[in-house]
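Late entry, evening session. Most of the bench is empty. Finally got around to the prediction I had been postponing all week. Sequence below, unchanged from the version circulated by S.P.
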Amino acid sequence: MESIFHDGLFAGQTIVVSGGGTGIGRAVAGELARLGATVVLCSRGMQHLEPARDAILAAGGQAEALTCNVRDPESVEAFFREAVARHGRIDGLVNNAGGQFISHAEAISPKGWHAVVETNLTGAFLMARAAFNSGMGQHGGSIVNIVMEMWQGFPGMAHSGAARAAVVNLTRTLAREWGQFGVRVNAVAPGLIDTEGMRNYGPETLAHLHAVAHEIPAGRMGTTHEIAAPIVFLLSPGAAFVSGATLRVDGGGETPYRFREGATREPWPQYTALAGDGGGDEGSAE
């Protein structure tokens, strides 16, 4: 695909993309490489990273794949040490690695809760901290955190919704703390995006999500490239005066996620003032 950004926009820069082997991460990495960046892809394993790296190299871009467990502080620190040793400095970070599963809140185990929160929240913090300490604190840079559309809660994914909401606050905090060092920190909140990861939810849930997508103004799911472009913008000089922002890329409106279709119950009872308390008939519908 041709890019809407000008050639060489990121020439001479090295940008880390976590979770860069699939979905949004892969689309971002490909776009950045087309624009001249050396892209360092990372994930827990090489299964998806190597094909993504090889595709970039085959297209004439510069890319490297290194393993990193974003939940493990030692792994994160080791990754950045190696990346800086190989490339001299890190100019940008796309905090894209994450994971979750669909479950009603009462069924989420403590282990499941911690796994999702540690990946999506703690992982984002550890990667950002390591990027800052590995050189951004001296020469500046740009960090983009990938969150989710959770402004009215996220039924079916309480763990991920809570973690991503915390990352929005973390984004604002880091933008304030690190701005004096020339580090910009922003976030992108995708709506319903058609990615490989959606296949993990099974055909029934996938069909439901496609149906729900018709209810948003765009009338469809978004594509990974439609998320990659705003991320690239936030990394670019075009966003030189943007920090602490969360850009919602959701097709024009919040998606009405419904994971308990067909559930019915009686309306909640109305509050009725106790008789004889002098409150009159305020609890009556008449």
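Two things to note before I forget:
The longest helix spans residues 110-139.
Residues 218 and 251 are 5 Å apart (CA to CA).
Will write this up properly tomorrow.
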